[in-house]
Amino acid sequence: xxxxxxxxxxIETGLLALxxxxxNGMRSVATMTVSVSQGEFASFLNISVERxxxxxxxxxxGAVMALAIAPFVINSHTARKVCLxxxxxxxxxxxxxxxxxxxxxxxxxxxxxxxxxxxxxxxAISFFAPLAQLAISQAKTDREKSxxxxxxxxxxxxxxLIAPQLxxxxxxxxxxxxxxxxxxxxxxxxxxxMPMVMGTADGAAMPTNxxxxxxxxxxxxxxxxxxxxxxxIFEAWTTANSFLGxxxxxxxxxxxxxxxxxxxLYFSVKSAMPHDTKLxxxxxxxxxxxxxxxxxxxxxxxxxxxxxxxxxxxLIDDRATLGAASQVIMVFAAGAxxxxxxxxxxxxxxxxxPCLIVSSVATIFYPYPATDAALFYWTKMLSSIGIGIATxxxxxxxxxxxxxxxxxxxxxxxxxxxxxxxxxxxxxxxxQISKLAGLGVTAAYQMVFVVQVSAVLxxxxxxxxxxxxxxxxxxxxx
Length: 478
What we know:
- By secondary structure, this protein is mostly helical.
- The chain has 19 helices and no strands.
- The chain has 3 domains: 1-199, Up-down Bundle (Growth Hormone, Chain: A); 220-277; 278-467, Growth Hormone, Chain: A (Up-down Bundle).
- Helix content is 81%, strand content 0%.
- α1 packs antiparallel against α6, α4 (79-103) packs antiparallel against α5 and α16 runs antiparallel to α19 (441-477).
């Protein structure tokens, strides 16, 4: 192969990797920015630090809606139009946040603009992740697909690594308002790269089969509508809990509606599915485990506890940076091991699970050694190592078993975001109920940390059952 051709391939691969990195990373930059700037947003909106989880909820809520819709609107023929519309909306949303922080209007106006902008921005920018996956599906070799999948998985923790530094060294110097105006440029960069990496994609549609038969099936719009209704009701319930409290009649009514609709959706999917449909059961099981593990690793209440107890912004930024760096390293290390030998998918769980157990149990002791900053650091790092490995295992397993099924291929992005939002909601309910029961703030945080431990133990139990079940079956057969 001559040198110019090699250089061209390297440039194409580099652009594709950048496209994938931006696609699954920009959303996390905004989320992490809010997380490490909780004190500033709490002051700007005149709310408590704990209430800033509303901002993260609306960001993630918009993302969940986008990822629920994405499989039905994105293919190689619509990709450019979707990218254009969502890039413009995302830029406008981030710019609105920046301009509002400069304008500093009345409190009620601030609340409406910031919440609406984060919701629409989270919705728009989240279409970039499946667009990046579409680009990965058009890679020429399995090796390139494997490399790009690892980049896609690492994009979120890399954003978590970069965002605290941007807040610390950019937002601190130029102001948070100007910071969001700068952030508004990033979606346009993604839009500009798109024609270069997907210029030959117009003729090849992204696979849409829903089974292993290879036949293209028409979408079941009734089920799709029911699924979207479940997501919308869930978002309405979380909003009611945040603004009205978990004990409000509105919140309880929406919770009941969500549970009923979820049950209807489950049985509707079960009855509509052909008997000969073969689903990747192992991949679905791992997605369930990853969903559960997102609950104790949101980091929202860990950070809120540190802000509430007057830890320095430098400690909070450095803690987030170390955690993100640990996650990035483990994503690439785990990706390299799995690419070399798929048997590592099972072995690496033996490292991920203990890290998550130890880190979640240790958070319960946050209130005791008040001056022991090392505890805050190493628990975050261990938790990030565990979730980084787990995410890499699950994403690689799902992509390997998808067999052209677009819903399965895009499932990890949805599960990660929806699991994060469900986790925040469960922890918020725990915190509010603890306060209603008469517990103090510190005791309420400890109850949140206990729930995080319970989630890790549930995931561990499921994995243990999966490992032991085949052995039990062999023993009984003998």
